[in-house]
Design a protein that fits this description.
Length: 371
Amino acid sequence: MQQTLENAILVGIVTPNIRKSTAEEHLSELERLAETAGAVVCRTFLQRVQAFNPATLIGEGKVQEIRAALDEENAKLLVFDEDLSGSQVRNLEERLPGIKVLDRTGIILAIFAKHAVTAESRLMVEVAQLQYLVPRLSHAWTHLSRQAGGKGIGMNGPGETQLETDRRIIRKKIQELKKKLEKIESARERQAERRKGIFQVGIVGYTNAGKSTLTNRLTSSSVYVKDQLFATLDNTMRKLYVGDGKFILLSDTVGFIRKLPPHLLDTFKSTLSAASNANCILNVVDATANDYEEHLEITHRILQELVDEKVPRIIAFNKAEAASEERRKELLAHYPEALQISAKENIGMEALKQKLISAMQDWEKNQRIGL
C-alpha cells in the first residue's frame, strides 16, 4: 500500500556557536531525513537566536510566522533540527492546533521504524521509540487520543497499545524488550566467536555514503540499495573471495549521522558489533559531500567508542566520479593514503580489493606469530 505523503515545514537554528553555513548544511540534511520518512518539504525556516526559548525553542513571533506558513502550505507536520523537550512540544502544539511537532530524533526514529526488517532491528526501534516517548508521555497521551488509529510520520512503531498506562509500565516494557535483545546479542556473540579465524572487515561511514553499493560491487551480491538516509538498518555480511579458496568477510553496518542522541547509539550499538569485532575498518566517505570532513570526524568519534585504535583503517572516498577535479585534488593532498573510488561506476575496485588483501595478509602474519 502506497504511503500518503505529508506536507511539512522544517526549522533550523543559527546560534552564536553554530555558523549560518553549518546550520544550512544541517537543515539540508534534515530535509533529506524528512523526505526519507515520507514527507514533502514545502518550506524551510532558518532562525537566528542568541539563546533557546525554554518554552518553544524559538521566539513567539517566529512561531506565529510559521503558523501562517503552515496554513498557506496546508502542512500538518513541523520538524525542528534541534531536540525538543516534552514541554516544548506541548507548548508548540498548543500554539499550532492540529499540527504534529517532531524534532530530528523523532524523524530518525520514524525512518528506523520504516526500514527495520529483522526481529532484532524492530525490537531496537521499539526500545528507542519508548525511551524517546517517556519524557514526552503527557504530550503523547493527548496527541495519540486525537490521532487514535492514525498513521503518519512519527506514528509507526509501538503505537497506542503500549501507551495504555503510565511511565512505570512503559519502563517495564523497555526492560522486557531489552531482555529479548540481550538473548539475540548473546547468540550474535556466539556467532562472532565462531568467526574468529576469519578475516573480517567492518564497512562503516556516514549514512548514504554508498556502503551497500560498495558491498554489492565487491561481492557481486544484492544488498538493498536506495538513495535514502538509513536505507540499511540491519547489519549485512557478505563474502569477498580473494583466490586460493580464501575469502574476506565484509560487514555492511548502519550509517552514522550527526546529532545522533547517545541513547539511540546505545540501543543500536549491538548492530555495530560487526565493526567492533572487525580486524580492519573500511571507512566509506561521500567524496561529493560539502561537509565530508565533518562526516569523517563524526565517524571517527563514534568508532572511538567501538573499535580498538590499533585496528587498521582504510579510507575510501566513494562517488569520486561525481566529485569535481578540485575536490579530488583536495582529497589527494589531505588524505594521500586514501583511495578514490566509485562503486557505482566500478572505478578503483581492484585497488581497494588489493588493499583489503594486503590487510588480510598482515593479519594472517600476526596470527601466526601470536600477536
